[in-house]
Write a structure and sequence with these properties.
The protein is α+β, with helices and mostly antiparallel strands. Helix content is 33%, strand content 23%. A hairpin with a 5-residue loop joins strand 8 and strand 9. It is elongated and about 75 Å long. The N terminus is likely disordered.
Length: 458
């Protein structure tokens, strides 16, 4: 037996993903969908091909130069935005970029309810935007992705419907047959030596075969769904070392396991995103809300082959370290991998939708009625088709242990009701919250749907 066969070979099954759309190519998360419906890396395109892809993705000129003005406190009236979008759709016009991108908002910091006007106002930072070769639409200066109206609509439809799932999410799971084939293959592998390493790893991925994508709670053809799958895909590739980490202080699981104990190397784990803010603050009358913190973290659990997630066991120290450090450096990750910030934005909009739904369930006076956004026939969002299956690919490391590891699943779990549940919200200093609300008073005219708070333009 060679020296190579006497050391542990740490192995990870990583996922590749493809999707399609009935229309032209669409790009997000550093990947694009070609005319055949296959998801590919935009980095593989030539400059001319990237420009052509962006041309196809263009949605028309910005109708107001003012919307590109940087602002620390841009405000968006959801009632008036809905009226604008509804009128455009009624007359057969496409939504311009400023409508699709919610006037360049890059995050939701505050949510304000105006019951006398039957309105909801969102506020946050905004600036002019551009589109990256990887497909994301981001701020020209800071590079943070803008909010998408489509994502808010999906969040509202989940929050205000009879829920088919207790959370919004996705998971990528091995099939029972794939796990059985994988175990059989590994039992028959025999000794591993350097001459057979690549052959064995290729055989592992082939034995595992296709893995299932499962979507929960929302339209599987939505941009929101594709964002979750793309973010999960990138989480896997970075966490398992298939892609180099964009943040030097983050060490992938394969490298950690290769340095660790035999027990760590022999355990399989899953990592996934969950929604969680540091604080959800509100005024005494619950008309003013503030979302504090990054709103997202990575968690982990151990999974035995074929074991449901609900029966997952306590993770190893190395697995926890991956989850904790990814969460700690998430802002840096999101700056370099914009699809993580895209998921962060989608989470924020889902939480906004839940706050709106809560007021409707309580039959609060002056609750905003998002009737047009909830009407799937009149308000049609861009459609994607996320596949039901993705193929497995393999990666590996040498270890000091005497076992092997695989990563079998992951996903995204967004539970807006839990995020803003009574046990997670805190009443803030009422004077401060009311002062914040007073700064975003609605303009006197009935048509202006976005504006910058006085004294907050840059």
């Amino acid at each position: 037996m060679s020296r190579v066969s006497r050391v542990c070979i740490a192995i990870a099954i990583v996922l590749s993903v493809w999707t399609q759309t009935p229309a032209n190519a669409q790009a997000i998360g550093g990947v694009y969908i070609d005319p055949q419906g296959v998801l590919r890396q935009t980095a593989s395109l030539s400059q001319n091909e990237r420009l052509e892809l962006l041309r196809k993705e263009a949605v028309g000129a910005i109708s107001s130069l003012d919307v590109g003005r940087p602002s620390d406190l841009r405000c968006v009236s959801l009632k008036r935005l809905q009226q604008t979008a509804a009128e455009l759709s009624r007359t057969g016009k496409l939504w311009p970029a400023e409508v699709r991108y919610m006037a360049g908002l890059q995050s939701v910091n505050h949510v304000f309810f105006f019951p006398d006007e039957g309105d909801v106002v969102l506020s946050g930072r905004a600036e002019a935007w551009t589109q990256l070769p990887s497909g994301e639409v981001v701020g020209r200066t800071g590079g943070r992705p803008v909010l998408h109206l489509d994502d808010l609509i999906v969040g509202l439809r989940y929050a205000l419907s009879r829920k088919t799932a207790p959370f919004i999410g996705c998971s990528i799971e091995p099939t029972a047959k794939g796990m059985q084939n994988y175990v059989t293959y590994m039992n028959n592998v025999g000794a591993i030596d350097r001459r057979r390493v690549q052959q064995i790893f290729t055989g592992m991925a082939q034995a595992m075969g296709m893995q299932a994508i499962r979507l929960y709670g929302i339209d599987s053809g939505s941009r929101f769904a594709l964002t979750m799958v793309a973010a999960d895909y990138r989480l896997k590739r970075i966490s398992l070392g298939h892609d180099p980490s964009p943040v030097k202080k983050f060490v992938n699981y394969l490298d950690l396991a290769a340095r660790g104990s035999v027990q760590a190397a022999q355990k399989q784990h899953r990592w996934w995103f969950v929604a969680e803010f540091d604080e959800v603050l509100h005024s005494a009358d619950e008309l003013a809300w503030e979302l504090k913190g990054q709103g997202i973290k990575v968690v982990t659990a151990r999974n035995l082959p074929g074991t449901p997630a609900a029966q997952a066991e306590k993770p190893t120290k190395s697995a926890r370290q991956v989850a904790d450090t990814f969460t700690r450096y998430f802002p840096d990750m999101a700056e370099r991998v914009p699809v993580f910030a895209e998921l962060q934005n989608a989470i924020g909009l889902a939480v906004v939708a839940e706050l709106i739904a809560e007021r409707r369930r309580r039959r609060a006076d002056g609750a905003w009625q998002p009737d047009f956004f909830l009407d799937r026939d009149r308000c049609r969002i861009t459609q994607y088709v996320v596949p039901a299956e993705v193929p497995s690919i393999s990666d590996y490391r040498y270890s000091r242990g005497r076992g092997w590891i695989t990563s079998v699943s992951g996903g995204v779990e967004i539970s807006p009701a839990r995020v803003v549940g009574r046990e997670f919200r805190t009443q803030s200093d009422d004077r401060v919250m009311q002062q914040s609300r007073s700064r975003v008073q609605l303009p006197a005219d009935d048509e202006t749907w976005w504006w910058d708070s006085v004294g907050n333009q840059q």
